[in-house]
Automatic annotation (TrEMBL):
Keywords: Hydrolase, Metal-binding
UniProt xrefs under Pfam families: HD_3
SUPFAM superfamilies linked: HD-domain/PDEase-like (SSF109604)
Source organism per UniProt: Coptis chinensis
Annotated signal peptide: none
Name this protein carries in UniProt: HD domain-containing protein
Superkingdom, taxonomy of origin: Eukaryota
Sequence intervals crossing the membrane: none
GO cellular component terms given for this protein: cytoplasm
Amino acid sequence: MDESSSLPCTKRIGKGHILAHAIVELVTICTGQSIPAPTGCAKEISELWMEYEENSSPEAKVVKDFDKVEMILQALEYENEQGKDLDEFFQSTAGVGCGLVVDVIIPNMLTDTPWKFQTDVGKAWALEIASRRSKKN
């Protein structure tokens, strides 16, 4: 975890992110309508969601990175189990990141490119997943 982030706050933002996704999907599926203005506990979830969406804290940055890490980890597992090439998922995490533009996407992401990860822990986990993917090829 980056020194500038707080684990308890990161956990809260992560939980808020998951809960907000679940609530929006459930309400939309069940009613076909959008969610009314939040109150009470829902207001806290809404505030955590906005902190995540606005990328406004070190904790939000960690949760955003974990969201991307989870996506490429699931893609790797699916590739291994189903024998499919899901390169587009890995490529979607390459590109603009850390204020830099990557002109060339290096195969298997095994470089010092910044990708779209904002934290050292996110970059390290993504690099580990990419190295496992390159070993299977």
